[in-house]
From TrEMBL, chain A:
Subunit relationships: Heterodimer; heterodimerizes with SNX7 or SNX30. Interacts with WWC1/KIBRA. Identified in a complex with WWC1/KIBRA and dynein components DYNLL1 and DYNC1I2. Interacts with BIN1.
Membrane-related topology note: Peripheral membrane protein
Gene from which the chain derives: SNX4
Pfam families, per database record: PX
Entry function: Involved in the regulation of endocytosis and in several stages of intracellular trafficking. Plays a role in recycling endocytosed transferrin receptor and prevent its degradation. Involved in autophagosome assembly by regulating trafficking and recycling of phospholipid scramblase ATG9A.
Organism encoding this protein: Mustela putorius furo (European domestic ferret)
Name recorded for this polypeptide: Sorting nexin-4
Automatic annotation (TrEMBL), chain B:
Source taxonomy: Eukaryota, Metazoa, Chordata, Craniata, Vertebrata
Source species: Mustela putorius furo (European domestic ferret)
PANTHER family per the UniProt record, alphabetical: SORTING NEXIN-4 (PTHR45949), SORTING NEXIN-7 (PTHR45949:SF3)
Name of the molecule in the record: Sorting nexin 7
Keyword tags: Protein transport, Transport
Main location: membrane
Matching CDD domains: BAR_SNX7, PX_SNX7
Length: 450, 474
């Protein structure tokens, strides 16, 4: 289930770079140890062929983030964050890892990589990047991109992105991806040389197709609706979660004030003094416990966010299908009209309006030679058209087949990941409750001893 | 400590007008109060069975008699002329029999000895051409002989409570009178008579009356009795008695002038007391604000949670595999939301009213300090006058003598009541916060149980799915 069919897919791939099979050591990628244990779906370990890149297991980590200043394209000074990507290969025998590559990349380079993947693998649900700007903030979190907490969470998100790509059966074999991890200088130029920007479908074209396509595969239509719903419900959830977090923060922190006041009050009390003082201490503990709790919850929110962005990736695949389908329908329509024209010319009946017909009527009929020439041209065109239609049909069917296979893979991944995330949320709540019981039990003891 | 205070207070409360009548009244009181629920009238108070059950009472009487012997010394101190105190009090001054002391030895923490039960309920709105106001129904159940009946039902409005408080303060300037709820709360009041406000006030008024009933001295105050028992017209005519407005105003002016002097010559223990009151007042006010703020934050948290749960339910509608998990989370969140509501209502019942009452108490205490200082200042000014004016020395000396008595009485009354008040305050604060802590523990326990059972159900399912092991029972 993890392996995607190899050969037909290669046909679909425009190959200016010949991404497959040209490097010496084929390396097998596997999920790095930084990933969750559950995501250990090592794609086809053992089905290595010379077509595979990776022979040994590799680990990928985004281990550091660093503020840098440099000059941008307009020669103006800018500040940005760079991330250190380290790749290690793991020796089979002793499990020791050796650092093979290490380089720095910034967010915009990740974006470039992803855009490239989107163009060359339109049938794949391409993993999303972490958000560019902090959204769904609650009051404590800064919306500033330079904020250390945000940078840290983005670092984790970028690592997650790389791991997802590396564990995808098809994407992991892409050469540009490989170079992203290994070739620091010149990588950008290499990507741009593929000319992928030109190959990208124009937004307008895609939009047009979406409105005009007549018979898209029902499953894709349903998928589109699903992805819309998923996006809407997750963003709603994240918004409310942020508000809940804000309120919870308030409840806990206000209790901290008790600590200070109790302590001051205890100074004038003889019998109650000790009890008040120690109860106050517990109130302080209570108030400060919320910081860790909410930090953990941010990670949970990030997990949900990833699937929020995945919704867009799903839609991209649907759009591609609609585009291809529309293309197909247009081609078929065109062919049908040409055939009709041909028929009319041959039989002499005019069923459709045509400019030629009008001019003929107005300026006199054409000669039989002229007519025959035209028929011949049309027949050629029809032949070509039929060939094209055949291959387009084939392409379309292949696309649907491969895309749907990846979508099924994605669905399973999504169900697994989200279920785990929800369970981890429950675990967090349990931990929070246990802490609360502890603190208030201690406080109660102090109060009852007053 | 308690018994001492009670006896001391009772003694300080002033003596009755004529000894003769007093003696009779004392006797009948002793008979009626010391005996099991039957009272002088021979009727049982009916519903109030818990007080003074038949068998134990005589043993109780015995015990009280023994305890009281040591208080006799205290009583000596107050055998002086109390006519300078404007007392309306009905309480026995020089109790001739130990039995009569029993009624004075009563505290909130000895419910068996309570013989006066008061409830305040049924707020009703009254509209007249001039104003709109609310009256509350006050039901008093008692076994005391001096009450003509064992059950009374009257209607009173806030103004009447204000009147009562004023009379009590007049009669006992250095006793700690329980506080009344505020006239109105300016902040956040949309409508003067919204339901929450009325309910809070009703509870506070009930507390006010019960505190008076539990106070060893104030409980015998005549105005208090009238307040509890008189019909509307009776109350109005009773109110019209007493010092007129002008004389009261005169008193206030003098009081302000004098209170400054009193501060200077304040004895050490009262300096300490004043210091305590100042700091206590600061702190309790802060705690009041903090507690109110916590309530507000919890309310807002609960509001957000109410929206949070259903989103998961909505999501489950578009999922297949995830639907159960999502529904589970939704239900957990809803249950936690309900637990939060409960926690909030616990806070608003156990903690907020108590803390707020003590905020008002702290204001009361400052007033009491002032009045004590005034009384002292009166003495001091006369003493000064004596030093500078040789004429009328005899008259002044006599006045000074009386004032010295007055000061001593006032100080002792305050001291005793202060101890009692502090003791009660500690108990009240302790139990309010202990209860709050319990509510919080209970809240977290409930939420814990909810999430744990959800988790267990999920891991069960997971095991079934992987079907490697047998699903464990949770």
């Amino acid at each position: 289930m993890e392996q995607a069919p190899r050969d037909p897919e290669r046909q679909l791939q425009p190959a200016p770079l010949e991404p497959l099979g040209h490097l010496d050591a084929g390396l097998q990628s596997a999920v790095g140890e930084e990933a969750e244990v559950a995501r250990d779906e090592s794609p086809g370990e053992g089905t290595m062929t010379e077509n595979n890149f990776w022979l040994k297991k590799i680990e990928i980590s985004v281990s550091e983030a660093e503020k840098r200043t440099g000059r941008n394209a307009m020669n103006m000074q800018e500040t940005y964050t760079a991330y250190l990507i380290e790749t290690r290969s793991v020796e089979h025998t002793d499990g020791q890892s050796v650092l093979t590559d290490s380089l720095w990349r910034r967010y915009s380079e990740f974006e470039l990589l992803r855009n490239y993947l989107l163009v060359y693998y339109p049938h794949i649900v391409v993993p999303p990047l972490p958000e560019k700007r902090a959204e769904f903030v609650w009051h404590k979190l800064s919306a500033d991109n330079m904020d250390p907490d945000f940078v840290e969470r983005r670092r984790i998100g970028l690592e997650n992105f790389l791991l997802r790509v590396a564990s995808h059966p098809i994407l992991c074999r892409d050469k540009i991806f490989y170079l992203f991890l290994t070739q620091e200088g010149n990588w950008k130029e290499t990507v741009n040389e593929t000319g992928f920007q030109l190959k990208a479908d124009s937004r307008l074209k895609a939009l047009n197709a979406t409105f005009r396509v007549k018979n898209p595969d029902k499953r894709f239509t349903e998928l589109k609706h699903y992805s819309d719903e998923l996006q809407s419900v997750i963003s709603h959830l994240l918004r409310v979660r942020a508000r809940v977090a804000d309120r919870l923060y308030g409840v806990y922190k206000v209790h901290g004030n008790y600590g200070r006041v109790f302590s001051e009050w205890s100074a004038i009390e003889k019998e109650m003094g000790d009890g008040l003082q120690s109860a106050g201490h517990h109130m302080d503990v209570y108030a400060s416990s919320i910081d860790d709790i909410l930090e953990d919850e941010e990670h949970y929110a990030d997990q949900l966010k990833e699937y929020l962005f995945y919704a867009e990736a799903l839609r991209a695949v649907c759009r591609k299908h609609e585009l291809m389908q529309y293309d197909l329908e247009m081609a078929a329509q065109d062919l049908a009209s040409k055939k009709q024209q041909c028929e009319e010319l041959a039989t002499g009946t005019v069923r459709m309006f045509s400019l030629k017909g009008m001019t003929t009527k107005l300026f006199g009929q054409e000669t039989p030679e002229q007519r025959e020439a035209r028929v011949k041209v049309l027949e050629e065109q029809i032949n070509e058209g039929e060939q094209q239609l055949k291959s387009k049909n084939l392409e379309g069917r292949e696309f649907v087949k491969n895309a749907w296979a990846d979508i099924e893979r994605f669905k399973e991944q999504k169900n697994h990941d989200l279920k785990e995330a929800l369970i981890s949320y429950a675990v967090m709540q349990i931990s929070m409750c246990k802490k609360g019981i502890q603190v208030w039990t201690n406080a109660k003891e102090c109060f009852s001893k007053m | 400590m308690g018994t001492l205070g009670g006896a001391g207070l009772a003694a300080a409360a002033g003596r009755a007008r004529t000894v003769g009548m007093e003696g009779d009244r004392l006797a009948s009181q002793a008979r009626s109060s010391g005996l099991p629920a039957g009272g002088a009238t021979g009727e049982s108070p009916g519903v109030d069975a818990p007080l003074l059950g038949g068998s134990g009472s005589s043993a109780l009487l015995q015990a009280q008699v023994l305890d009281l012997d040591e208080d006799e010394d205290d009583l000596e101190v107050f055998s002086k002329d109390a006519s300078l105190m404007d007392m309306n009090s009905f309480s026995p001054m020089m109790p001739t029999s130990p039995l009569s002391m029993i009624n004075q030895v009563k505290f909130e923490d000895e419910p068996d000895l309570k013989d006066l039960f008061i409830t305040v309920d049924e707020p009703e709105s009254h509209v007249t051409t001039i104003e709109t106001f609310i009256t509350y129904r006050i039901i008093t159940k008692t076994s005391r002989g001096e009450f003509d009946s064992s059950e009374f039902e009257v209607r009173r409005r806030y103004q009447d409570f204000l009147w009562l408080k004023g009379k009590l303060e007049e009669a006992h300037p250095t006793l700690i009178i329980p506080p009344l709820p505020e006239k109105f709360i300016v902040k956040g009041m949309v409508e003067r008579f919204n339901d929450d406000f009325i309910e809070t006030r009703r509870k506070a008024l009930q507390k006010f009356l019960n505190r008076i009933a539990d106070h060893p001295t104030l409980t015998f105050n005549e105005d208090f009795k009238v307040f509890l028992t008189a019909q509307a017209w009776e109350l109005s005519s009773h109110k019209k008695q007493g010092p007129g407005l002008l004389s009261r105003m005169g008193q206030t002016v003098r009081a302000v002038a004098l209170s400054m002097r009193g501060v200077k010559s304040r004895p050490e223990e009262f300096m300490e007391m004043n210091n305590f009151i100042e700091i206590f007042s600061q702190k309790i006010n802060l705690i009041d604000k903090i507690s109110q703020r916590i309530y507000k934050e919890e309310r807002e948290y609960s509001d957000e949670m109410r929206e949070y749960g259903p989103i998961h339910l909505l999501w489950s509608a578009s999922e297949e595999d995830l639907a159960d998990t999502l529904k589970g989370v939704a239900s957990c969140i809803d249950k936690c939301c309900k637990a939060t509501e409960k926690r909030m209502s616990g806070l608003s019942e156990a903690l907020l009213p108590v803390v707020h009452e003590y905020v008002l108490y702290s204001e009361m205490l400052m007033g009491v300090m002032k009045r004590r200082d005034q009384i002292q200042a009166e003495l001091d000014s006369k003493v000064e006058a004596l030093m500078y004016k040789k004429a009328d020395a005899d008259l002044l000396t006599e006045e000074i003598g009386k004032l010295e008595d007055k000061v001593e009485c006032a100080n002792n009354a305050l001291k005793a009541d202060w101890e009692r008040w502090k003791h009660n305050m500690q108990n009240d604060i302790k139990s309010a916060f202990t209860e709050t802590a319990e509510e919080n523990i209970h809240y977290y326990e409930q939420c814990l149980a909810t999430w744990e059972s959800f988790l267990a159900s999920q891991t069960d399912l997971h095991m079934e799915e992987t079907s490697e092991d047998k699903p464990e029972a949770h």
